[in-house]
Amino acid sequence: MPKAPPKHSKAAFNKGANSAEHTDTRTRKQQLEAAHGDDIIDLDMPPLDPADLCQTYISMLFEAGPVLPGGMGGATALTWQELDAWASRTDQRLTPEEFRLLRRLSGVYASASHRMSEHDAKSPWLEQLAEHHQRKQAAIKAAFDRMARLSQRQPTSRT
């Protein structure tokens, strides 16, 4: 009769990794319903505040590591493999849309990090945003003023 593998051997590890507990793709709620049936109290959860939801995804991004180191000291967005490995190791059950959102957030973070590392980068403070808004309003007002002047001109009649 073959001997059982030692407790800490590779064979014992692989046996544990292939157990049903690791390959079950059902959600926790589905697992509980299957195990306990109607004995589970179904609680209606309150709707999430959008600000709380944003904070949740930003926290997930920073837990995964917002970017990967890139060449020449730059940063690149997290790869699908990195996100998948993080989700697997932290037992996150994310939808494809949530994975896409995290990847997009990582790309935005990497892009902003690159822009802000330039020697002539302007800081994104409120004063600069206010100046940009004022310049935009002035350009719009100037365009409307030109349109008003053009509409006031009387067309010359040709006879």
Helix fraction bin: 55-70%
Whole-number average pLDDT? 79
Number of strand segments: 2
Total of DSSP H or I helical runs spanning 4+ residues: 7
The end-to-end span amounts to: 115 Å
Percentage of residues in strands: under 5%
**Spans of at least 5 consecutive residues with low confidence:** 16-20
Our Rg estimate from Cα atoms comes to 29 Å
What is the SS-derived class? Answer: mainly alpha
Q: What is the 3D shape?
A: elongated
Major sheet: 2 strands, antiparallel
Listing every helix as H and every strand as E from the N terminus to the C terminus, the arrangement reads HHHHEEHHH
- Major sheet strand order: 1-2
Question: What does this protein look like?
Answer:
The chain has 159 residues and is mainly alpha-helical. It is built from 7 helices and 2 strands. A two-stranded antiparallel sheet has the order 1-2. A hairpin with a 5-residue loop joins strand 1 (67-69) and strand 2 (75-77). Helix 4 (50-64) crosses helix 6 (96-116). The protein is elongated and about 95 Å long. Mean pLDDT is 79; it is low at 16-20.
